[in-house]
Design a protein that fits this description.
This protein has 460 residues and is an all-alpha fold. It has helices at residues 2-6, 8-12, 14-30, 35-54, 62-70, 72-75, 81-113, 122-130, 145-155, 157-160, 163-180, 186-190, 193-206, 208-219, 229-235, 258-271, 279-284, 334-354, 448-459; strands spanning 415-416, 437-438, 444-445. Keywords: Cell membrane, Glycoprotein, GPI-anchor, Heparan sulfate, Lipoprotein, Membrane, Proteoglycan, Signal.
């Protein structure tokens, strides 16, 4: 569009435009770019170039060009376009990049949880639940549901410890998604950027005489120079009328659209809410692994009969009352605390992005956890606290920015049918059967294969 509209003048100064778009791309890929400064670095030289073109009968030196730039904020030759566009660019790019970074870091947190072993004497309890019935001559008898739940809640006690912060992260990411589908939509901001810039240029043209006179009064009068035919052609830009058709946004078909990707990812992440507390139910709500119906014969851990103990509540602290697995709830798990800490940081960054604040990511080659630091220009920083973590904020001041930001979130856990169920209890239906789960596509599944893989990782 710029080449068609401005011709040779654009070609001679195209680097001003390409530098801006390269800066925006560099910010998305690597960060560490001040977007407000990048926009200022675009409009200031654009203003200087236009001023010299519109006043090409004068001779300009570097000192005078600096003076021209110094008067830009006071004169506002482009109207309010630079300020509005800078705000739109900043908040949409920050939110988009934070969204992508948060997905990558959440994936790493999930992968790190694979290194978290089983809690307490899980091995003995699991063997007693799944194998000891063979000694009683009933090798195919499945364990009672509450026995299974107590064993698995004890075994996965540390995994369930991630539940609260994970849910906070999911909520924060959902809010940023809402922004990206609304006022922070990066496509809505970027696609018409050429029109916004042209609008700024036209504002300057309309007020060029007044702006020039004020600059001359502030910076001094210049010496005239000899004008060539080429100079005269450039001066004609002052009265150039832009064709309206050049301002139309051309919609090209995309598959899939950015909006669709954000909606899909948003739903998949929402489906992961309460995933950690439901891990035991994924396994024990499977008739191939445990007896689901209360009136069916089952293995109670020592004999064929009813299991009379109640299932303990979810959460690490509640496992001190677990009758099947002895869990030391006072002993901190560094891996778990690190992931909780990282989630707190991510949630804080997402909240800043939601509010249109800066979000900083520190670039380093090696990274092992989410990094600290955001709120530049806002007067705030990410402040998080993890009880018993033993880690200082500087110890975890690492980064993931060298990783690709375009990966799609691969972690798609199953979700409970009822989104109203709390994390401390799971309701049964009228038949006393624990709720089944679906994978977000309407297909019901017990999630057995997923949890079995998890168990292999724990016990392997």
């Amino acid at each position: 569009m710029f080449k068609k509209t401005y011709g040779i003048i654009y070609e001679q100064n195209s680097f001003v435009f390409t530098d801006l778009f390269e800066e925006l791309e560099r910010y998305y890929l690597k960060g560490q770019i001040d977007l407000e400064e990048a926009m200022e670095n675009f409009f200031t030289p654009l203003y200087q170039k236009m001023f010299t073109v519109l006043n090409s009968q004068y001779q300009f030196d570097d000192k005078y060009l600096i003076c021209i730039g110094d008067h830009m904020k006071d004169l506002k030759p482009f109207g309010d376009v630079p300020q509005k566009l800078s705000v739109q660019i900043k908040r949409s790019f920050v939110a988009t990049r934070t969204f992508a970074q948060a997905l990558n870091l959440a994936k790493d947190i999930v992968n790190n949880m694979k290194n978290l072993g089983a809690a307490g004497d899980c091995h003995d309890a699991f063997f007693r639940m799944s194998q000891c019935q063979a000694c009683k001559g009933v090798p195919d008898l499945k364990p009672c549901t509450h026995l299974c739940l107590n064993v698995m809640k004890g075994c996965l006690a540390y995994q369930m410890g991630l539940e609260d912060e994970w849910n906070h992260f999911v909520d924060a990411l959902d809010k940023v998604s809402d922004r990206l589908l609304g006022p922070f939509n990066i496509e809505v901001v970027v696609e018409p950027i050429n029109i916004k810039i042209s609008e700024a240029i036209m504002n300057f043209q309309e007020n060029s005489l007044e702006v020039s006179e004020r600059v001359f009064n502030g910076c001094g009068r210049l010496s005239l120079r000899g004008r060539s035919r080429r100079d005269m052609k450039e001066i004609q830009l002052e009265t150039y009328e832009f064709a309206k058709e050049s301002h139309k946004i051309t919609k090209s078909p995309r598959h899939p659209t950015l909006e669709k990707l954000i909606r899909d990812i948003r739903q998949k992440v929402k489906d992961s809410k309460s995933f950690w507390s439901y891990l035991p139910y994924h396994l024990c709500n499977n008739e191939k692994f445990a007896v689901v119906m209360n009136d069916d014969p089952c293995w109670n851990g020592s004999a064929v009969g009813r299991y009379t103990r109640e299932a303990v509540d979810n959460g690490l602290s509640n496992q001190q009352n677990n009758p099947e697995v002895t869990v030391d709830t006072t002993k901190p798990k560094s891996i778990l605390n690190e992931q909780i800490y990282s989630l707190k940081i991510l949630t804080s960054k997402l909240k800043n992005a939601y509010n249109g604040m800066d979000v900083d990511w520190i670039d380093t080659e090696d990274s092992s956890s989410a990094d600290i630091g955001s709120g530049e220009g806002s007067g705030e920083k990410d402040v998080v606290d993890v009880e018993g973590s033993g880690e200082s904020t500087n110890d975890l001041n690492n980064d993931y920015d060298k990783k690709e930001t375009k990966k799609i979130f691969p972690f798609i856990p199953l979700r409970p049918v009822s989104s109203n169920e709390g994390t401390n209890s799971v309701s049964k239906n009228e038949k006393g059967v624990l709720p089944k789960y679906n994978n977000g596509n309407g297909h019901f599944s017990s999630g057995r294969s997923q949890v079995i893989c998890c168990l292999f990782a724990l016990f392997g």
